[in-house]
Specification:
The strands form three sheets. Strands 5-6-7-12-11 form a five-stranded mixed beta barrel. A four-stranded antiparallel beta sheet has the order 1-4-3-2. It has two domains: 2-77, RNA polymerase Rpb7-like, N-terminal domain (Dna Ligase, domain 1); 84-179, OB fold (Dihydrolipoamide Acetyltransferase, E2P) (Beta Barrel), CATH 2.40.50. The chain is elongated. The chain is an alpha+beta fold and 202 residues long. The N and C termini lie far apart (56 Å). The chain contains two helices and 13 strands; from the N terminus they run βαββββββββββββα. The chain has helices at residues 22-34, 173-201; strands spanning 2-13, 38-39, 43-59, 66-77, 84-93, 96-101, 104-109, 118-121, 126-129, 135-137, 141-150, 160-164, 171-172. The longest helix is centred in the last third of the chain and has 29 residues, at 173-201.
Length: 202
Amino acid sequence: MYYKVKIEDTIRIMPDLFGEDLDEVVRNIVQKTFEGTIRKNHGIIVVAQNITPVGDGIVIHGDGAMYQKISFDALTYKPEIQEVVDALICEIVEFGAFCHIGPIDALIHMSQIMNDYVQVDSESEIITGKEKKQKLQVGDPVRARIVAISLNEISARESKIGLTMRQPALGSHTWIYEKEKEEKSGSKKNKGKKQKKEGKSS
């Protein structure tokens, strides 16, 4: 889920930047330092906005750089257990499928893709159900539920998120649409049969 939060911190400004516009220097450093990083309480910082220096900077003896307190509004993405997300399949591998959810990738293990035995063709990047013949491939939009989260604050790339699509109303958008269409068709047929039965009895 996305959030907007206020963050306060301190940045280090190198001496060769002292003659430049402070606001621009601070903005560039904050964006390079914080965007794409992970904080335990806030999740992934996607965008830093409304960046403001707070008070005067401090120069520490023997360092030469200036330490400047700053505050900014951050758009963050923090995945939550049991959260339902819409994602886009970006890679098919032997053990499942990776997909984009917001600014991070997540894994749908082959055992969590569908209620069917699956065949994985990692070369053609297609996963096929053995019985229902449902297919999943790169570029497919899907709906899944988050079942595992491990965010790495030191290295965002090492973060891991696990998804499942083996629950009602989850899966490829195509599968969901086809199932809804099938259910509506079945409902209309049952309604027609009921009306015919009532007509005969009258």
